[in-house]
Q: What sequence folds into this?
């Protein structure tokens, strides 16, 4: 049995007892973590694909240690101009060991209220230009009750813009979630 799960913004194919290096997690060494964003499950011939995630599926893991990755050298040069820049980088990583994969029946980490999905909008005459703006504001309020990590970056930026948060154009998904929380 294997699963494709999203961990710290990246997708990983994981199996039981597998060790995986992921971007740094904010969990202490020796603690257990669970990941609810399971995108695909395969159990022999039975394959379940989520849209986007499988409800009730969960991957549990144990944090083994925090470490730094290999050094990466970034060297930039423009010939005949005397321009040379050399930089190094070491990524902060966390080593985790997958302890189990649950296909269904797992309790979500946070109690979520699901808002009804927006129905497809019919074409309206150009005279009613104010109506779509009012509908957009109501969808932002509905989305505020959903889990922020399952939203797209565009939706998060729209929510931040509605709340009046500045500097959102350069923010990544994790920064937007932190600003909205």
A:
């Amino acid at each position: 049995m294997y699963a494709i799960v999203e961990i710290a913004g990246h997708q990983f194919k994981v199996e039981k007892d597998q060790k995986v290096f992921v971007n740094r997690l904010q969990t202490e060494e020796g603690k257990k973590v669970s990941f609810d964003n399971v995108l695909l499950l395969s159990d022999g011939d039975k394959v379940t694909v989520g849209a986007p995630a499988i409800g009730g599926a969960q991957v549990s893991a144990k944090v083994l240690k925090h470490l730094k990755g290999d050094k990466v050298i970034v060297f930039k040069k423009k010939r005949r101009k005397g321009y040379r820049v050399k930089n190094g980088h070491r990524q902060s990583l966390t080593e985790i060991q997958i302890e189990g994969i649950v296909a269904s029946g797992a309790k979500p980490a946070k109690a979520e209220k699901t808002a009804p999905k927006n129905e497809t909008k019919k074409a309206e005459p150009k005279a009613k230009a104010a109506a779509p703006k009012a509908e957009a504001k109501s969808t932002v309020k509905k989305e505020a009750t959903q889990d922020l990590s399952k939203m797209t970056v565009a939706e998060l930026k729209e929510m931040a813009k509605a709340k009046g948060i500045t500097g959102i154009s350069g923010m990544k998904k994790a920064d937007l979630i932190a600003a909205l929380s």
